[in-house]
Amino acid sequence: MQRTRPPVKQQHLSREFVITGNVAALGPARDAIMDFVRQHCTGEQQEIDVMVAVQEALANAILHGCRNDAAKLVHCTVEISPSAIEFTIRDPGPGFDSGGVTDAIEDGTNLTQHGRGICLIRGVMDELTYRHNGAELYMKKEIVGKSE
User: What is the Cα–Cα distance from 20 to 11, expressed in whole angstroms?
Assistant: First the structure.
């Protein structure tokens, strides 16, 4: 039986996480972010969706934006309101052509070397936008009215 829990009632909350730009920092950063947002998810499935999106977004920022360089930093801002959890993840890289990102082909399979993480994020988040030539990602998960 899948558990469902109501989102915690709160005012707007905001927190910034600064992450070292190497792969070793990925797991601890994801866990710290999830510790902050977990209680605001409406259920286990939504929590998993958010965790997958955060993992993929941080991995892209670390691997592509920072080039796995511990001297570089990734900034992740999390905003929690009664209706949504919003993430802005910014890396110091030059960005990329977000218009050229490969979408999954019709059967849902992406056979390219890049873009699978972006396809995953699109599949689990309610909104995904790139800013600053792709060096900043905004993603949103709605939490009001969701039943997971």
Answer: 30
